Amino acid sequence: MSADARGDFSQIPILDVSGLYAGDDAAVLKVAETLRGYLENIGFLYVAGHGVSRADVEAVRSMSKAFFALPDEEKLKLKIDKNFRGFLPFAGSTIVTSSVAKVSKPNQSESIFFMHEVAADDPDVLAGKPLQGPNQWPDETALPGFRATIERYVEEMSALARKMVHAISISIGMPADSMDRYFDKPTTFLRLLHYPTQPAEEGLFGSAPHTDYGYITLLAQDDVGGLEVKNKAGEWIAAPPIPDTFVMNVGDILARWSNDRFVSTPHRVINRSGRERYSQPFFFDPSMDEMIEALPTCVPAGAEPKYAPVLYRDYLMERIDKNYHYRKGAAAAAATS
């Protein structure tokens, strides 16, 4: 890829990843080589041929709609906790760490987070490690089948994400399983989002311009649209819904890991459709205790990595503590204790 081509795009490409499931090394290599170009140049693509059924995607969307239709007092019974699990009320985050825009107004959305499940008696919980604990679930009598639907989807999305980790490893000249150890206990987030239609107001967004924090994001959209991706010319390129695909993008940690070989591209959401928008991004990140430093195949001979090593836990917590309103009091208290 030439330097001139980086960020020069006018649409988001589609990649059929069914070759990753074929048990054929040549098919896997073909997917990985195509993927490399998309991640180096655009940082975004649509993933097709992934094996996750439309029925399971739509089942999660139906559960999401049912949850957000509950009265506020019911949703607030699951208000987001110190472990970043639960319901985040409307306008509960402002992306002040955005590297691509000065953001002063909160995102026009409400959401509920489900992270990797950690039992209350797990050693990491007992040791007080951050973001470790059980998820919060709606009452089964109110939303029957909710937990089973979500957990099945997280399992499927995790399997797809691991396929993509293998393809990414191959794409940068490493064995397929070379990064598996970083994901022994992956940090995962499934965020169900509800975006009401928003007024046309300067600086107001469903999701303000930003880059994602982590490794990769796999997003299922409904049919409303509103996601836009920024190219190097400063144009916002629509990423409209395409049936049976996920939008995949590079997060900041993968960009950092690859020594900026892969690009973490700015994106935003604007919902002026006159309709309610529902989306379900799944974030697949390394274990919290992993040290992230540039991969050797991504650092030219004789050159120094662009970034110093960073503990993923520290990197993630800095961003969460700054961007989510409910965290700010806790973070300040911790800093003075």
Automatic annotation (TrEMBL):
<dbReference type="GO" id="GO:0009693">
    <property type="term" value="P:ethylene biosynthetic process"/>
</dbReference>
<dbReference type="InterPro" id="IPR050231">
    <property type="entry name" value="Iron_ascorbate_oxido_reductase"/>
</dbReference>
<comment type="pathway">
    <text>Alkene biosynthesis; ethylene biosynthesis via 2-oxoglutarate.</text>
</comment>
<dbReference type="Pfam" id="PF14226">
    <property type="entry name" value="DIOX_N"/>
</dbReference>
<comment type="similarity">
    <text>Belongs to the iron/ascorbate-dependent oxidoreductase family.</text>
</comment>
<protein>
    <recommendedName>
        <fullName>2-oxoglutarate-dependent ethylene/succinate-forming enzyme</fullName>
        <ecNumber>1.13.12.19</ecNumber>
        <ecNumber>1.14.20.7</ecNumber>
    </recommendedName>
</protein>
<dbReference type="GO" id="GO:0102276">
    <property type="term" value="F:2-oxoglutarate oxygenase/decarboxylase (ethylene-forming) activity"/>
</dbReference>
<dbReference type="InterPro" id="IPR027443">
    <property type="entry name" value="IPNS-like_sf"/>
</dbReference>
<keyword id="KW-0408">Iron</keyword>
<dbReference type="InterPro" id="IPR005123">
    <property type="entry name" value="Oxoglu/Fe-dep_dioxygenase_dom"/>
</dbReference>
<dbReference type="GO" id="GO:0046872">
    <property type="term" value="F:metal ion binding"/>
</dbReference>
<dbReference type="GO" id="GO:0051213">
    <property type="term" value="F:dioxygenase activity"/>
</dbReference>
<feature type="domain" description="Fe2OG dioxygenase">
    <location>
        <begin position="186"/>
        <end position="286"/>
    </location>
</feature>
<dbReference type="Pfam" id="PF03171">
    <property type="entry name" value="2OG-FeII_Oxy"/>
</dbReference>
<keyword id="KW-0560">Oxidoreductase</keyword>
<keyword id="KW-0479">Metal-binding</keyword>
<dbReference type="InterPro" id="IPR044861">
    <property type="entry name" value="IPNS-like_FE2OG_OXY"/>
</dbReference>
<dbReference type="InterPro" id="IPR026992">
    <property type="entry name" value="DIOX_N"/>
</dbReference>
<keyword id="KW-0223">Dioxygenase</keyword>
<keyword id="KW-0266">Ethylene biosynthesis</keyword>
